[in-house]
Amino acid sequence: MQFLPLEQLNIDEKILKILKDRGIEKLNPVQTEAINKGLLKDERLLVTSPTGSGKTLIAELGIISHLLNKGGKAIYITPLRALTSEKFSELKVWEKLGYKVGMTSGDYDTDDAWLKNYDIIISTYEKIDSLWRRNPSWLKEVDYFVLDEFHYLNDPHRGPVVESVAVRIRYKNLLALSATIQNYEEISKWLNATPVTTDWRPVPLKEGVIIPEKKSSYKVIFSNNESINIKGNDAILAYVNYVLQHGGQVLVFRNSRKIAESTARKIASNMGLFKMDKELEKISNEIKEVDDAGTTEKEDLAELVRSGVAYHHAGLSKGLRDIIEKYFIQRKIKVIVATPTLAAGVNLPARSVIVGDIYRFNRQILGFNEEIPIMEYKQMAGRAGRPGFDKEGEAIIVVRNKSEADRVFKKYILSPPEPIESKLGNEASFYTFILGIVSSEGRVTSDEVEDYAMGTLLDKDIVKSYLKKGLNWLRDNEFIAGDDDLVLTKFGKRVADLYINPFTAKTFKDYLTRNEKSCNVAYLHLCAYTPDGPRVSVSRNEMYDLVDLSPCPLFIEEPDDEDEFYNYVSALKVGMIINDWIEEVDEDIILGRYGIGSGDLRSIIDTMDWLTYSGFNISRVLDLKEHAEAFYILNLRVKDGIKEELIDLVKVPGIGRKRARLLFENNIKKPEDIIMNVDKVKSLLGSRLGEKVAKDAARIIAGNA
DNA sequence: TGGCTGCTCATCTAGACAGCATGTC
DNA sequence: CTAGATGAGCAGCCA
């Protein structure tokens, strides 16, 4: 284990100064090792090391030294939007050297052409993949790529994109950063990169299991053979109390939202000691004021937080999650019970991590519960130990008995995580990959496509069979044209640019060409039924009601197959949710009616916004005028959750579904009406907002003219 | 007949990327 | 192989 004092670093003074200003005196062993392997000399590297071991700084040094020596541009790619903005603020300090730092991702988007003004761009894998398909000229100037959280390659859903991006930068400078993986040698060979691997962590990690003993007693056994006895009637409760008594914070992971919530409640009712804390009272009130969440969820959470406990999952609105994360980092909130959201996302460490469940329901293998991958456990355990606060972090797994304890200990604590493998081996992913290649190249021979495909991690024989099938399928369905000289058709190019799954495009095409215009629910159902559509769970009770609820004939016929029927009904539920949304049904009512959280609603709306826009474009490129018209209006309504009559009003910034409705009911129906009745608008919206809205309305009208 | 208790059995289950128009964070 | 919380439904009991 070697620490390298900054003085010994052969690096530009300007860089040193910035590092010193940040309080960095020496580089840690991982960083030192990366430098020894050529980080500052543009060596292609694959760094595998635990969470929180300072990989971001490695990336920063790599990027900056490259820019200083060679100029050009650098792109830093992450798998999550939240990480993209986190890295953006971290990399911002380098603007002191005159470099411009920018970011772009789905929810924080920047015009393609504008990106040429930045030297360092932070983005997501999907966004970069999408950008590549359009191939703006500045992209060729980018010659340094950081691929963060590279182990996402192993994710069945997101992995194919990570792999596609990696394949494209075979001949550029590359720095791949990953959690610890078993087969790093194989992967680095594939990437043509030098491996840098260590187990060094800034805060040592103690892993263990908690086992029930006699009655009201638990034993915790750690990997260093230490063990402690704890009293209590519930393993999680007992351990949480133990940690709190020693002044630590706890992150508890559970495998379902409902269980996370009830565990949080159980812990809260056991936390008399923090009740009536003034700070917590304040946070509780702040939660009640959040404006993007449902009333019930705010009240539930506000009550819990009064005890210093919160739950956290994707059903919660962004606003609620932000508050919880913020006050946990400030150590006001002592315990968070979370689903796996927090395992992979932003940096949110705690002294202790409790992994409540090692099993997880799996829809594919019904009635069968699978054990979570070791990699996932390591991600959760990796959150243990706060640098600067805790001397050591601890992660414990809850088990049921002694024999399970032995097995779990061996598997999760003593074994390395699974090897990571290509996830391109399925039709949808592979065909998408080919489509992307043809799109960015503009015109390619099938040999060149094969050359790209052979560069993937996929087994060569599998590549060959998929390639043949894929090219035929894409040709048969009119995405590409030409036998040897391949180009995208107009339809194919549109699909590539919209970034929809080719099977989504085919679904649109098939049903739209075959059917006449129908009602909104039919269009929404079609969007939701595509492979890109949002999936919602449907209970047995809902299932049959939903079928009767549909207000008009749908484009898709009711399937006989049980699984397909479920997808059909799930899509119908999405259709009904969005239909309520665009009929201006109150948000609280929607959440209650369909049993979803405000975070779920938000994500369904976002996806359906994208898909209705895609439906519009697909209809247009196929020259289906009636469908295009219907999708166009529908898309505008889905964006803001409004009836058609409010479309003009919401064009004014600051006016959403609620304000637009208020104005409309008071006979202000167009931006022009706002300007004509500024006093009325001010009395309805308050004078400051009214003033601003009037100004923006004037600008919009001027823009239209 | 009405209401409560306790048991059995069926039911249910994580997460999050993308377009475009905005302004350019 | 490798789950567990929840809630509806119902039998049984008592007043």
Automatic annotation (TrEMBL):
Top class in the EC scheme: isomerase
Keyword hit for Ligase: no
Keyword NAD included in the entry's annotation: no
Signal peptide per UniProt: none
Assigned keywords, A-Z: ATP-binding, DNA damage, DNA repair, DNA-binding, Helicase, Hydrolase, Isomerase, Nucleotide-binding
Positions contributing to ATP binding: Q31
A Pfam family this chain is assigned to: Helicase_dom4_arc
Domain of life: Archaea
SUPFAM superfamilies on file: P-loop containing nucleoside triphosphate hydrolases, Sec63 N-terminal domain-like, Winged helix' DNA-binding domain
GO molecular function, one term: DNA binding
Reactions accelerated catalytically: ATP + H2O = ADP + phosphate + H(+); Couples ATP hydrolysis with the unwinding of duplex DNA by translocating in the 3'-5' direction
GO biological process, one term: DNA repair
Ranges of residues in domain Helicase ATP-binding: 36-199
Entry function: DNA-dependent ATPase and 3'-5' DNA helicase that may be involved in repair of stalled replication forks.
NCBIfam families per the UniProt record, alphabetical: helicase_Hel308
Protein name per its UniProtKB record: ATP-dependent DNA helicase Hel308
Organism listed in the record: Acidianus manzaensis
